[in-house]
Amino acid sequence: MFYFSRRLSSIPVLGIILQKLLRGYFNNFRPRYFVETRSGLTLLFDQRNIVDRNLLVYGEWEKDQIATLRDLIRLQREKAAKKTLFLDVGAHGGLYAMMVADSPGFDRIIAFEPEPQNYAQLRANLFMNKLTRRIETREFAVSDQCGTVSFYAHALGNRGASRIDPQGQEADFEPAVVVQTKTLDSCIEACDWQIALKIDVEGHERAVLRGMSRLLRENDCILQVEALDVDALEEATAILKAENYRLVQRVANDYFFTVNT
């Protein structure tokens, strides 16, 4: 199925017309859930989900962020030969984990996703791309403690915005469900590995970082951390600075950190 590049869609008037035509086609002639190929992957799409709609219209999602992360991973591997691990924290439908799986050399890839609909979509995508053995999945939220917590699925067509803390906007979310929480330090055994992480957890990133202090100290990590406001960025940067990590690059709301050497 065809789609429009972001460059073509950015042309005034023409881009708007093309986007409306394609969205109209999907809305009128395709069911809510269907399978298409995008970014070289066979994916299950939900038309009510904004991430899926962007992939359908533009053929990509966070292309620049993924390219930056892969470049940093390549540079990391050139330093030394170590065991390698990729952690997709807040995996949604698994796009990052599947794109990274295309890169050679990872000993393990693990995707973490607590939201039930997202997790079902993640497993379906792995199945269709024959990656169920290559990519491990964990259906719990990553945090700074082990236990349970209320989790809110977004009700307005953006399952990527599902979160632990609704930040006073409960009307925008479905009734909370109880999900399990674990720290990365409690569930990942790794020492002197090269670890790359994508952390996209809608405001809970500082708790994720606090719960992985051992992994940060004992391994050579690259982190892509989404921070949606200045306070979140400053706190995340302070946590990582205390563990000898520095900010090296920014793409939109995603910030990339590597260990000081």
Structure description:
The protein has 261 residues and is α/β, with parallel strands linked by helices. The chain folds into 2 domains: 53 residues, no CATH class; 197 residues, Vaccinia Virus protein VP39 (Rossmann fold), CATH 3.40.50.150. The chain contains 10 helices and 12 strands. The strands form 3 sheets. A 7-stranded mixed sheet has the order 5-4-3-9-10-12-11, sandwiched between helices. The protein is globular and about 55 Å long.
Topology (SSEs and partners):
Blueprint: H1 6-9, H2 14-29, E1 33-38, E2 41-46, H3 50-58, H4 63-79, E3 84-89, H5 95-101, E4 108-112, H6 116-128, E5 135-138, E6 141-142, E7 147-151, E8 177-182, H7 184-187, E9 194-199, H8 205-210, H9 213-218, E10 220-226, H10 230-242, E11 245-251, E12 254-259
Parallel strand pairs: 3-4, 3-9, 4-5, 6-8, 9-10
Antiparallel strand pairs: 1-2, 7-8, 10-12, 11-12
Question: What are the main properties of this structure?
Answer:
36% helix; 7-stranded mixed sheet; alpha/beta; 3-stranded mixed sheet; Rossmann fold; 261 residues; 10 helices; globular
Brief sketch in words of this structure:
By secondary structure, the chain is an alpha/beta fold.
Reported by name, the CATH topology of the largest domain is Rossmann fold
CATH homologous superfamily of the largest domain?
A: Vaccinia Virus protein VP39
Assembly status? single chain
Class computed from helices, strands and strand pairing: alpha/beta
Number of strands: 12
Gyration radius, to the nearest Å?
18 Å
Strand order of the largest sheet: 5-4-3-9-10-12-11
Tally of contiguous helical segments: 10
Provide the domain count: 2
Low-pLDDT parts are: none
- Major beta-sheet overview: 7 strands, mixed
